[in-house]
Design brief:
The complex is a heterodimer of chains A (258) and B (893).
Chain A (H helix, E strand, L loop, with lengths): L7 H8 L7 H4 L1 H21 L24 H6 L5 H22 L15 H25 L26 H4 L5 H27 L4 H34 L13
Chain B lengths: L14 H25 L2 H37 L9 H16 L1 H44 L2 H72 L7 E3 L7 E3 L27 H7 L2 H4 L2 H4 L8 H5 L19 H4 L10 H12 L2 H4 L22 H4 L2 H9 L1 H4 L17 H14 L7 H9 L4 H13 L6 E2 L11 E2 L9 H9 L1 H4 L12 H12 L12 H8 L1 H14 L47 H10 L20 H11 L20 H14 L8 E2 L4 E2 L21 H4 L2 H9 L21 H12 L10 H4 L6 H10 L2 H4 L19 H7 L6 H4 L2 H9 L1 H4 L12 H19 L6
Parallel strand pairs in B: 3-4
Antiparallel strand pairs in B: 1-2, 5-6
The chains are: A mainly alpha (258), B mainly alpha (893).
Chain lengths: 258, 893
């Protein structure tokens, strides 16, 4: 639990701490309490909510809504906003690659062996946003809010199998009045390129001089981190654009659509 | 927290949190334990309750048995001594006495003696074997000495042999003596033991009932609550498990037929049903549906949102028979489903809805409604418009349904348009010349009307028609009380004269009436009208009906509403599509596949198949929206009829997953019975004939024994018809009926049978008979040579047959001068003409009749002639010869 190469800025914090603490009672006592709490929660959960077993499968009848197992419902939710290839392969692939890359991208050693939010605000918020906001919440939406026809229902609403919702979505180009296919594609490429390039560039230009973190990262790490971050933020951007502006695709190409 | 917020974990106190969490854990574990044992196991309470009831029953039984036992013992104790003991006390004392004897020293001596003797016998046996070995050795020594010529040795040997033989006989003698003594002793011991045994078994017998009861009680008391299940195989793609009997423990036990609680009550039909459907194989859900695996009432009976086959309760379960039974309409335990099917057939639902694969439904060979090809000649436009608008207003019993909204009927404009097309397309009807002549020449007078009324009431019209609401008699109840408002005399005349010429679809038969009779009948019918209604002409309406716009609109409306489904309409001759949705798989539709409209006819939480179907049958228009029209008319079903229809509609499933060996296929003749019942309903045979019971769908055998005072049942009982007559004769008779019993005022009319209906009826009667006439039967081929026609002729005369019967309309010479009746003609009217007997009657039945007519028909006026089978055959041969000489009919050759 010691850190041999502590950056200087952190030294003041660490001075007050003992060099070592015992696992018992320091860790195990709290762990046992957490275990009790977990047992209570799991017991109450299992008593009050039955396993979601449905009718025996009938090959002649497709259930409506046809839902994936609950742990995949976040991915299934992405299918509403992206094409299957993007939602099912590219985005999960980037998630895994990004998670694997963290040790190589993260040069901030603060918080090793102890907890600090203040000095790891970006890392922690980004992870929590990705995990809670883009993984857990879509699962909750998929389980409790998606009904027949994959329409959204409030929990107190009757799941009307005949519910009709108009989904008149248009592409980004159409939205601003461009009817030409090629022009639309160019606009899409420009928009996506800007999304990936402009915010990181501005950040790098403005903050490089005063930010020791950026300096420590170097350009290569920064570019990779920025790409992964912007990819992640593309998901809420698309959700917002779809739900509020009724945008179908940002970019339409013969090979793929985003 | 880090800066100065650090606390030494050893000094931190988590006691309170630990206490709270620990207490919560214990509480949650307690909750879990409760759920595991009681909360989620409601069946255990049922089992314990049932056990209590059963134990009470058994204990009552035990108490009674004990009482009876004691009374019996008391009675037996007081009874005089017999050689054999009877009461338990006597058995016991007997046993004690014998046991006492067995323990006594003298008996012990006997036992010892037996042991001693047994040993002795054994010892003697060993000795016997040894002596014999010695003897064999001695023989050898002697014989080898003889062989070698040693005389001394031989003589010595001979001596030795003789001495050993002496020893042997001594041994045998002793052994015989000892064995005899042993036998004596053994007998004594056995006697003692067997008498003890018989006493003990007698005691057991006397106390066994009590012992068994006690054993059952002990077993029941120690048995733990346990889930019981039946594995049902072969009824679907997978094995089903029914755990219903876990709670319904008394389901197959007669002694629980009257249990207070429904859950423990025996199945109401268990005696009848479980014999052919053993519960341990068929289970419960094969008929009742529901979730067999579930162990709580709600889940088992109603299921949840993922379970689409809730339990079929009450009469609804009758809809299950058709799953396996191809003979479902004949299943006596499911009458409601068959009734529902009959309503479905009668109301003509199948005209608009396709129904495939239902054993209950036969597609009728003709359209249900009257032919509209010449409607112009039949009714006035004013009447037609009013009728189309709301037929129930004119006749609330008509089968014609009411289109449009309930109570309001079709919109006036639509009705006018429909009438307009019907009038436009209507052809000229060939109203017979006689009709106009009679309409013109013979005006209606009170005399003709009175005569017409008499005819109406005596000729059999009342079998199907009635003149008013309170005089219903026939099965069809076709009202004629307002017919005078509707039609004209030439039309009525032509109609009665030959209905089929006026409407191809009619089932109205042609009656043998004279022209004058038809005219009188028409006069009478035209007087049938409500007094205050006078037909008026409405010129504006007539103009509207004639307008070409309305003609086009009418045509498209006929197409829209599918009027052609029930009526023949010119311009719609081609096979047009059925207007309604197919119902072959209707029972399987769940609430999501049914359209509920937007009027909230049934609230969301109550929506299911039953509520939809009920509401739909009650008022189809309630489901209409501005975008989805509902064309189905209101069928005006009573609540009871709706209930029956629900049961029938629930049978309509195309799901046939039942393995073939579990299905009850049609047996020979059953198809004919099913079709026949429907045809009898359709043609209304039971309007005049007794014997058919429409509720039970059976032909009751035997003749009626008392005169049927109610009109319409004066025609012969149809019950024994299949037994009595031959198929070819019946077929001819249905085609062209002739006068059989002159004394009856009503005549069998000639029905316009459609399609194969006539043959189907003939087949029906044949199938209904236990012992029908053999097909292709020839009288002469069966009879022995000594039976001949001459003998028959003599018998006819000798047995006075010809006193009452005529043959071929002629009087035969009587063999005896004795005349029984003062008025010969009266007698002849009573008895049928004999000429048709050989063709008509089943010879087996005829033989039985001639042997003893009163055994078949107790109130017949036919005397008991007691002819032998041969004699009656001879008469039939004579009669058949007479006929073939006269007319050379091929059927008797």
């Amino acid at each position: 639990m010691t850190a041999s190469s502590t950056p200087k800025a952190d030294a003041g914090d660490r001075a007050a701490l003992p060099a070592k603490v015992f696992a018992w009672p320091g860790l195990l006592r709290i762990e046992s309490l957490v275990a009790l709490a977990a047992i209570i929660i799991l017991c109450v959960w299992s008593i009050t909510i039955d396993a979601p077993l449905e009718e025996p499968a009938n090959p002649a009848i497709t259930p409506n809504p046809a839902k994936a197992p609950w742990y995949f419902l976040g991915l299934q939710e992405l299918l509403v906003y992206f094409d299957p290839w993007i939602a099912g392969v590219v985005i999960p692939g980037l998630c895994i690659v990004g998670l694997m890359a963290i040790p190589y991208l993260d040069v901030n050693l603060k918080g090793n062996g102890y907890y600090t939010f203040k000095r790891r605000a970006f890392a922690i918020s980004t992870f929590l946003f990705g995990f809670l906001g883009l993984w857990i919440i879509p699962i909750v939406i998929g389980v409790f809010f998606r009904g027949p026809g994959w329409n959204l229902f409030w929990p107190w609403e009757h799941w009307d199998i005949h519910k009709v919702v108009a989904q008149n979505n248009v592409n980004l180009g159409n939205l601003i009045g461009i009817k030409n296919y090629l022009a639309e594609a160019v606009l899409g490429i420009v928009f996506l390129s800007a999304w990936y390039v402009v915010p990181p560039l501005v950040l790098w230009r403005k903050k490089y001089a005063e930010s020791p973190t950026l300096k420590a990262m170097g350009l290569t790490r920064f570019v990779i981190t920025a790409f992964l971050f912007q990819s992640m933020m593309l998901v809420p951007l698309k959700i917002f654009a779809r739900l509020v502006l009724h945008v179908k695709y940002f970019l339409v190409l013969p090979w793929f659509n985003v | 927290m880090i800066n100065g917020g650090f606390k030494d974990p050893e000094k931190q106190d988590f006691g309170k949190i630990f206490l709270i969490l620990g207490a919560l854990t214990v509480a949650v574990l307690g909750w879990e334990l409760y759920e595991e044992t009681i909360g989620r196991q409601p069946w255990i309470a049922y089992q314990n309750e049932f056990k209590k009831i059963e134990l009470e029953k058994l204990k009552d039984e035990l108490a009674q048995a004990e009482k009876a036992f004691e009374a019996r013992q008391k009675k037996l104790a007081g009874a005089p001594e017999t050689a054999e003991p009877t009461s338990v006390a006597k058995y016991r004392s007997g046993i004690a006495r014998i046991e006492e004897i067995l323990r006594s020293p003298s008996y012990r001596q006997v036992i010892e003696e037996k042991e001693r003797l047994t040993n002795q016998v054994n010892e003697l046996g060993v000795e016997h074997r040894f002596i014999k070995a010695d003897l064999d050795a001695a023989y050898y020594t002697r014989d080898s000495a003889l062989e070698n010529g040693e005389k001394n040795g031989a003589a010595e040997g001979e001596k030795e042999v003789i001495s050993i033989q002496g020893k042997l006989s001594e041994n045998e003698k002793k052994a015989a003596e000892v064995t005899a003594r042993l036998k004596d002793v053994t007998q004594k011991v056995e006697m003692a033991e067997s008498s003890l045994q018989s006493l003990k078994s007698g005691l057991d017998k006397e106390t066994s009932q009590l012992a068994t009861l006690k054993e059952r009680i002990a077993k029941l008391e120690s048995s733990p609550a346990a889930i019981q299940q039946i594995v049902v195989t072969g009824l679907g793609e997978y094995e089903r498990v029914d755990r219903c009997t876990t709670c319904h423990q008394g389901i197959d036990r007669a002694e629980f037929a009257g249990a207070d609680k429904l859950v423990f009550r025996a199945h109401p039909d268990h005696e009848k049903l479980f014999k052919s459907h053993p519960i341990d194989k068929a289970g419960c859900t094969s008929c009742h549906d529901g979730q067999g695996r579930a162990l709580s009432e709600k889940e088992a009976h109603e299921g949840d949102k993922h379970f689409h086959t809730p339990m079929l309760k009450g009469k609804m379960v009758q809809s299950s028979c058709a799953r396996c039974h191809e003979n479902a309409p004949l299943v006596s335990t499911a009458p409601v489903a068959a009734d529902g099917a009959a309503i479905f057939q009668e109301k003509g639902c199948a005209a608009c809805h396709k129904v495939d694969g239902s054993p209950y439904i036969t597609i009728p060979s003709v359209k249900l409604g009257p032919d509209l090809k010449a409607i112009k000649a039949k009714v006035r436009p004013e009447w037609l418009v009013a009728w189309i608008k709301d037929p129930k207003k004119f006749d609330e019993r008509t089968l014609m349904p009411q289109f449009g909204e309930k109570g309001k009927g079709l919109a006036e404009g639509d009705a006018v348009a429909l009438a307009s097309y019907l009038t436009y397309s209507s052809g000229d009807l060939a109203i017979s010349h006689d009709a106009y002549e009679y309409a013109g020449k013979h005006g209606s007078t009170p005399e003709t009307v009175a005569k017409g009324k008499r005819l109406f009431e005596s000729k059999g019209c009342l079998g199907c028609h009635d003149q008013g609401a309170n005089q219903a008699s026939g099965p069809r109840h076709l009202r004629l009380d307002r017919v005078g408002e509707k039609v004209t005399k030439p039309w009525v005349y032509s109609w009665i004269e030959n209905p089929k010429a006026m409407s191809e679809t009619t089932i109205m038969p042609r009656f043998p009436l004279s022209k004058e009779e038809i005219s009188c009948l028409s006069d009478y019918l035209l007087t049938l009208r409500l007094k205050d209604v006078k037909p008026k002409r409405d010129v504006a309406l007539e103009n509207a009906v004639a307008s070409s716009d309305n003609i086009d609109k009418g045509k498209s409306l006929i197409k829209k509403y599918g009027c052609y489904s029930c009526h023949n309409i010119p311009g719609f001759e081609r096979n047009l599509e059925r207007i309604g949705p197919e119902l072959s798989d209707f029972a399987a539709k769940d609430e999501n596949l049914l359209f509920w409209g937007n009027k909230d006819v049934v609230p969301h939480e109550k929506r299911n198949w039953y509520t939809w179907t009920k509401a739909r049958l009650d008022e189809p228009k309630a489901f209409e929206t501005d975008r989805i029209p509902v064309l189905m008319p209101n069928m005006h079903l009573s609540p009871e009829e709706t209930e029956k229809m629900l049961v029938f509609l629930k049978t309509l499933s195309s799901e046939r997953t039942i393995a073939k060996q579990h299905r009850r296929l049609l047996k020979q003749g059953e198809k004919e019975l099913i079709t026949g019942h429907q045809l009898i309903d359709h043609y209304g045979c039971n309007g005049c004939h007794a014997g058919y019971e429409p509720e039970k769908k059976v032909l009751a055998g035997g003749f009626h024994t008392e005169p049927q005072v109610k009109y319409g049942k004066l025609a012969p009982n149809l019950g024994p018809e299949g037994e009595r007559v031959r198929a070819d004769w019946l077929s001819d008779f249905l085609e062209a009926p002739y006068v059989m019993r002159p004394y009856l005022p009503a005549r069998m009319p000639a029905f316009p049978f459609h399609g194969d209906d006539k043959q189907a009826l003939v087949n029906y009667f044949r199938a209904s008979a236990v012992d029908p006439a053999p097909s292709g039967f020839r009288e002469t081929a069966v009879l022995s040579a000594q039976v001949n026609a001459e003998k028959g002729k003599q018998l006819l005369a000798k047995r006075q047959c010809v006193t009452c019967h005529m043959v071929g309309g002629k009087e035969l010479p009587a063999g005896s001068p004795v005349r029984w009746y003062h008025d010969m003609n009266k007698a002849r009217q009573l008895a049928p003409d004999l000429s048709s007997v050989p063709r008509k009657l089943n010879p087996k039945w005829a033989n039985r009749w001639m042997a003893n007519p009163h055994a078949i028909m107790p109130d017949t006026t036919m005397p008991n002639v007691a002819l032998t089978d041969e004699e009656s055959s001879a008469i039939r041969i004579y009669l058949s010869q007479g006929q073939s000489q006269k007319s050379n009919t091929s059927s008797v050759k």
